[in-house]
Amino acid sequence: MTSDIDISKKNAGYFAAELIQDGMAVGLGTGSTVFYAMERLSERISSEGLDMIGVPTSFQASMRAREYGIPLSVIDEYPSLDIAIDGADKIDSSLRMIKGRGAAQTLERCVADAADLFVVVADESKMCEKLHGPVPVEVLPFALGLFERRIRELGGIPSIRLGVKKDGPVITDSGNFEVDCDFGFIDEPELLQSAINNMPGVLSCGLFTEFTDRTKVVIGNENGVNIF
Ligand SMILES: O=C(CO)[C@H](O)[C@H](O)COP(=O)(O)O
After folding, report:
1. Catalytically annotated residues
2. Which stretches within the chain are classed as H helix?
3. Could you state, in order of their start, the residue ranges of all structural domains in the chain?
4. Which atom of ligand 1 is closest in space to residue 33's alpha carbon?
5. What does the entry list as the binding residues for substrate (predicted)?
6. Complex ipTM value
């Protein structure tokens, strides 16, 4: 049975897919809401002959895009993208967000940075007054101990993410660890983002505060979408 959340995600994803026009290079984010955008893009490719190229942000995104028959390339070939479509885990009213449930935030940040417009698709449960909850961070295995010490010094509680159908730590698509760092409610997301991203051994954290001036957030609900 399709849940309300799934309908909301589908409405958001389908709306984002309609923003894509012929000839566009499009970043394809990771997660279940982006899958709906890909589903609709696939339909448009078949029915309208939509001519587009996708740049995926993870193995998951590229596998699903291939299943959907979406032509793919890489950021080396397309360092400038028209639009990147991606999901988020928490979004505040200033359009700052936390990403990284899928441990893909490093590549997602590269693709968002390359794009003229960052379209974030989510259901209503992702909106919040103040960002809170664990901030995912991709960390070089070599630097883990030092990283955990630095996070504790900043007031966070680091917790290395463990595999579900794998013993031991989650290994990211780039071969690193993913560490969820709990800071509770985050007063100054920009400062926390730069403090974490400046730590030795950090690839990228899941706080996304730098794209707000070119972000469109599409929040799906049971009946349609709201745009922020
Ligand atoms: O940041 C992400 C992956 O790293 C996802 O975009 C985020 O977790 C949203 O996922 P979903 O659309 O499945 O709720």
Report:
1. 108
2. 4-17, 32-48, 59-67, 105-114, 144-153, 189-197
3. 4-128+210-227, 132-205
4. 12
5. 30-33, 86-89, 99-102, 126
6. 0.97
206 belongs to an annotated ligand binding site = no
pLDDT band for position 179 (cuts 50, 70, 90): very high
- Ligand 1 pocket, residue 29 CB under 6 Å: yes
Q: Class of 4-128+210-227 per CATH?
A: alpha beta
Nearest CA to ligand 1 atom 7: 88
Q: What share of the chain is helix, strand, coil (3-state, %, to 5)?
A: 35, 30, 35
C-alpha 103 – ligand 1 centre gap (Å) = 9
- Give, using CA atoms, the residue closest to atom 3 of ligand 1: 102
Rg (CA), the chain: 17
Contact criterion met (CB below 8 Å) for 183 and 87: no
Calculate the average pLDDT of the chain.
97
Question: Homologous superfamily of 132-205 in CATH?
Answer: ACT domain (3.30.70.260)
- Span 124-133, pLDDT tens digits: 999 999 999 9
**Ligand 1 atom showing the smallest separation from residue 101 Cα:** 8
Q: In angstroms, what CA-CA distances link 74 with 55, 96, 121, 158?
A: 5, 26, 22, 32
Confirm or reject: Cβ of 173 under 6 Å from ligand 1.
Answer: no
Output the six-digit token pair for 87: 């999901």
Q: What is the pLDDT of residue 158?
A: 98
Residue 103 CA, closest ligand 1 atom number: 4
